[in-house]
User: Which sequence fits this backbone?
């Protein structure tokens, strides 16, 4: 089970936390990634994200399965990433994990965002006043992961 979704709609961290509600949980941790207004000293005007939704959602489910295998105390996993044009300050990704106790949730949350950057096929176009560039969200993608 879990929530694994690529969407063009706004993402509500509160709605995801509510969806993970269960009387057996005592902890929900979240990561909310927002579009920042600066990258490498350049003022960002907006970002544009693209993904192959079916493949990306499959990889998000894979991350959820990996988390449950490594941290059996994690009860639920939700990972939602937005695609399309996002303005500075808008939410790009929300990851939420629930467990009976908080002990392993923070390590699992860090793992989730790191794995998302490693294996989920997402591309972002960073737009500045003086140009734009497509980049792969894959950390291991390197130059071959860039889109032109």
Assistant:
């Amino acid at each position: 089970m879990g929530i694994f979704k690529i969407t063009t709609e706004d993402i509500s961290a509160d709605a995801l936390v509510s969806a993970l509600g269960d009387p057996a949980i005592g902890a929900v941790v979240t990561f909310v990634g927002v579009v920042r207004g600066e990258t490498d000293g350049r003022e960002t005007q907006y970002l544009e994200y693209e993904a192959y939704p079916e493949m990306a959602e499959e990889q998000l489910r894979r991350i959820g399965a990996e988390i449950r295998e490594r941290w059996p105390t994690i009860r639920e996993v939700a990972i939602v990433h937005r695609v399309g044009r996002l303005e500075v300050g808008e939410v790009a990704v929300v990851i939420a994990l629930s467990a009976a106790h908080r002990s392993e949730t923070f390590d699992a949350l860090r793992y989730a965002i790191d794995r998302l950057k490693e294996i989920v096929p997402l591309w972002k176009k960073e737009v500045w006043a003086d140009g734009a560039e497509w980049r792969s969200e894959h950390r291991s993608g390197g130059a071959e992961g860039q889109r032109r």
The radius of gyration is 16 Å. The chain has a mean pLDDT of 90.
